[in-house]
Amino acid sequence: MSGLTRPICKHSYLVQKIEELPRIIKEAFYIARSGKPGPVSIDLPVDVVNATLKNYSYPKTISLASYKPNVKGNPRQIEKLSQAIKEAKRPLLYTGGGVISSGASNELIKLLEKTNIPIVITLMGLGCVPNSHRLFLGMPGMHGRVAANYALMECDLLIAIGVRFDDRVTGNLNTFAKKAKIAHVDIDPAEIGKNIKVDIPVVGDVKSVIKDLLPKIDKREPNDWNRKTEEWRKKYKLKYNQQKNDKILPQYVVDCINNLVDSNTIIVTDVGQHQMWAALFYHHKKPRSFLSSGGLGTMGFGLPAAMGAAMAYPKRTVVNIAGDGSIQMNIQELATCAINKIAVKIVVLNNSYLGMVRQWQDIFWKKNYSKTCLKQGPDCPENCRGPGKDCPNIYRPDLVKIAEANGIKGLRAIKPSEVDPVLKEGLKTEGTVLMEFIVKELENVYPMIPAGKSINEIIMGEE
Ligand SMILES: Cc1ncc(C[n+]2csc(CCOP(=O)(O)OP(=O)(O)O)c2C)c(N)n1
pLDDT for 238-294, tens place per residue? Predict the structure, then answer.
């Protein structure tokens, strides 16, 4: 087991003697929570589980020779960064999950206020600064906002904080932020220089580094660059047109959620198109309030993660925005919710497809919708090009019935006019509720920069 978990965990322990257990537990929690947080696995063989340890105590201190996270940034590197900010004409902040892990939102907002530097925030960082902040340009990358991507293309100083230059953000590395000097602040030295050459590396905890940086920089007034980025933000708005559609648009459902929940709400997503619509259209207000599986995004993450959030914060509303594919990965947990009274509000954006894969088949594989239609049945043509008017296959699983069979309330909206009432009823109902929204099947997430391409190859999508 420890061999299996080692490559996918931050650390893996195999307890061989019961006497080791207190030290291992103490170390495991320390490793999991410190530095760059990550899972630690403790493998307990059955003889250890059955053994008894008398008079145990946890060690008071921890000393791990090979693990000493460097919290304090090097003052000379911080000085270099402050100098670069002074000299830059077109600086840009590129921030991510590290800001949230480090609890550095307040410090980051102070940095924004003092410097007026525009900011882009990755999927894992959403909420570290509220979307409503005047300097926020949006999420960057493959499904990011145009303004955020144009800013990455044109900046002359990129201040990357708690990010990892993920390929979904950078696209083609040969053209990414080509005009910029790059500074990278991260607690994990292995992240620095991993994907991109960095001019000013700063190894340290994000919060500590920003705190040290703040007194070293002068107030910076908005300039032409601010006006330019603001112009892009106003010109390239995220849009959808529910009025023009008789089918429910997924973006509209997310927008309606915005109007009905308070700022304490925790949004949890699965993986797919719905994840991108939640990231783009939800009004993120606070850190640690948007849980999503980034990187190797795993379908089925949403419901269990939402259950964990609901158990940790029983007074906060927890909404799991899921796809009809993802929800079925761990749908058995509906019973766990019912038995343990775990209140998760599940919003399924049901497009009858593994939508994100279908979108790629649509754009890059000549609409060869292979194995992505979830209502596929025996009469389906081998190379279906999408649901024709007479599609005979309506074997879509009835999610409302599945919810009810597990002792959970199920609601469904088919027409746009039903979206708001269903959400209102679902959100005010106590306990777990599954709300199914039958959305337009072939809607795509735009804008989109195809994998490995440059920002100027962006596909804007239809009006
Ligand atoms: C466990 C797992 N299998 C496969 C994938 C690849 N994948 C990414 S998105 C996606 C489709 C998700 O479909 P759905 O949950 O219905 O969401 P939609 O894209 O339709 O919103 C798939 C298959 C994945 N991310 N995780």
Answer: 999 999 999 999 999 999 999 999 999 999 999 999 999 999 999 999 999 999 999
Lookup: tokens for 424: 């209102």
- Three-point CA angle 159, 146, 229, nearest 5°: 55
Q: Which amino acid is at 18?
A: I
Closest residue by Cα to residue 229 from 338, 168, 160, 145 = 145
Token pair 């100027």: residue: 456
At residue 395, the pLDDT reads 67
CB crowding 63-84: b at 16 or more within 10 Å, else e: eeeeeeeebebeeebbebbbeb
Ligand 1 pocket test: pick from 142, 271, 274, 327 the residue with the most ligand atoms within 8 Å of its Cβ.
Answer: 271
User: Token pair of 48, please?
Assistant: 């250890």
CA distance 340 to 334: 10
Question: Which atom in ligand 1 lies closest to the alpha carbon of residue 326?
Answer: 15
- Cβ atoms 394, 373 nearer than 8 A: no
Tally of CB atoms within 10 A around 50: 9
DSSP 186-233: ES-GGGTTSSS--SEEEES-HHHHHHHHGGGS------HHHHHHHHHH
Distance CA 24, CA 12 (A): 10
> Within 10 Å of residue 383's Cβ, how many Cβ atoms?
10
**Residues near ligand 1 with C-beta < 6 Å?**
270-274, 297-300, 323-326, 349, 351, 353-357
- Cβ atoms of 374 and 396 within 8 Å: the answer is yes
Distance CA(268)–CA(157), nearest Å, equals 33
- Whether the CB-CB separation of 317 and 264 falls below 8 Å is answered with yes
CB 203 within 8 A of CB 189: yes
d(C-alpha 94, C-alpha 454), whole Å = 17
Ligand 1: atom nearest CA of 272 is 19
Q: Specify the 3-state DSSP secondary structure of 448.
A: strand
Q: Is 235 exposed, middle or buried, given 0-12, 13-18 or 19+ CB atoms closer than 10 A?
A: exposed
* Mutation pick for ligand 1 pocket among 142, 276, 354, 376 (CB with most ligand atoms within 8 Å): 354
Q: How many helices (H) and strands (E) does the chain have?
A: 18, 14
Rounded distance from Cα 65 to ligand 1 centre (Å): 41
pTM, two decimal places: 0.95
User: pLDDT tens for residues 332-368?
Assistant: 999 999 999 999 999 999 999 999 999 999 999 999 8
